[in-house]
Amino acid sequence: MARTTANFRCTECGWTTLKWAGRCGECQSWGTIVEADAPTRTIAPARVAASRAARPITEVGVESAARWPSGIAEFDRVLGGGIVPGAAILLSGEPGVGKSTLLLEVASRAARQGSRVLYVSAEESVNQVRMRAERTGALSDNLYLASETDLATILGQIDQVVPQLVIVDSVQTVSSAMSEGLAGGPAQVREVAATLTRIAKERDLPVLLVGHVTKDGSIAGPRLLEHLVDVVCSFEGDRQTALRFIRSLKNRFGPTDEVGCFEMTGDGIAEVPDPSGLFLSRSSSPVSGTCVAIAVEGRRAIPVEVQALIVKSAAPQPRRVVNGVDSSRVAMLLAVLERRAGIKLSDHDVYVSTVGGIRLQEPGADLAIALALASAQRERALPHTLAAVGEISLAGEIRPASSGRQRLAEAKRLGFSEVLDSSRHNLSDAIRRAFMRAAPDLVQVPDF
């Protein structure tokens, strides 16, 4: 008779331990260790077929999976060149950002290329999906719709339609009778994702899954969901703007941290192949407090205009308001400007923002932010033909940013005649050089 031992398992990632612990040793989650009694069994070794016998790695042939394009170049760019057969792709994002609209467009373009596509909506009826498809022009005879929330019924739909692409919207709303709990729970999400991933591998059938996010922006459900799938993409965007970004967070078949640009329109979603002019102001004359940074998103160099405004503060604690940049990074740059460059800003209200709603997370934008702050404090406008790239240290030195040649090439292509970078060894030298190129006349804001 098998001897029963008490095992404890993490409900988030599946990590097991013999003793109870308050914190998971794998995913570091608190309060997720539960007791799971399981009999200890001895597994007999199975006979391995000759076709599945292990071979030296040097004798294994390289068979590259043929990617097929989805018809959306920006989406293919994030995936690494197209959709790989048998891949499980997870697309997450906030409610209303446009996940379903994007995947419906992917489904329609794949159907127009002759592929049979099954779109399973667990949140909307087929009539609602049909209305959105008619509005966005995504109608095709090869696109099959189904509204199902049961995993077994979805597998039956796959056997009946025999598609070349499956889209499930969303994985948190599908439940399985083989697992306990409500739809969206850790056990249900794990069972549904594991089953769909297994079907994708067995049939070389690419499966696109839609994932919900929590209030802090992470994917809802167990962390095991991200480990099961092959590609994890995040669909981001601000509701106040029409611009949307797809970021590749995990990709077993291509580069990670790649970015695709889209724009939400009344007719659906449209790709933006060259977003160079989306993050620059339309002012014809230079204005004080602005500077252009050449940022790198994935493998793409994008010019981003940084704007700064400095106002004399009457409060004992001056305000520091930022939008699109890191607040702690701006606070550090303010301290470096005051200590190393002699620009006193401790008694001023400081406002820093980016144009277009893009977020600058990389340290390569430090020099542009510092020049925008210096320009706002001195009330001297920098020319439109000047850009800045570089990381600023606490000692006031300018360090080179990554992908320097790519940034310089993009700046030259866009018409920037001078780029301030790490060749200016310190911040004071860079500010002095920038003001030598400053516009002689300051553009004043007219009175209304």
From TrEMBL:
Chain sites annotated for binding ATP: G93, E94, P95, G96, V97, G98, K99, S100
Region: Lon-protease-like, residue numbers: 349-448
Domain of life: Bacteria
UniProt domain RecA family profile: residue ranges: 64-213
Listed transmembrane segments: none
Stored InterPro entries: AAA+_ATPase, DNA_repair_RadA, Lon_proteolytic, P-loop_NTPase, RecA_ATP-bd, Ribosomal_Su5_D2-typ_SF, Ribsml_uS5_D2-typ_fold_subgr, Rubredoxin_2
SMART domains assigned to the protein according to its UniProt record, in alphabetical order: AAA
GO biological process: proteolysis; recombinational repair
Described purpose of this protein according to its UniProt entry: Plays a role in repairing double-strand DNA breaks, probably involving stabilizing or processing branched DNA or blocked replication forks. DNA-dependent ATPase involved in processing of recombination intermediates, plays a role in repairing DNA breaks. Stimulates the branch migration of RecA-mediated strand transfer reactions, allowing the 3' invading strand to extend heteroduplex DNA faster. Binds ssDNA in the presence of ADP but not other nucleotides, has ATPase activity that is stimulated by ssDNA and various branched DNA structures, but inhibited by SSB. Does not have RecA's homology-searching function.
NCBIfam families tied to this protein: sms
Stated name of the protein: DNA repair protein RadA
Gene that encodes the chain: radA
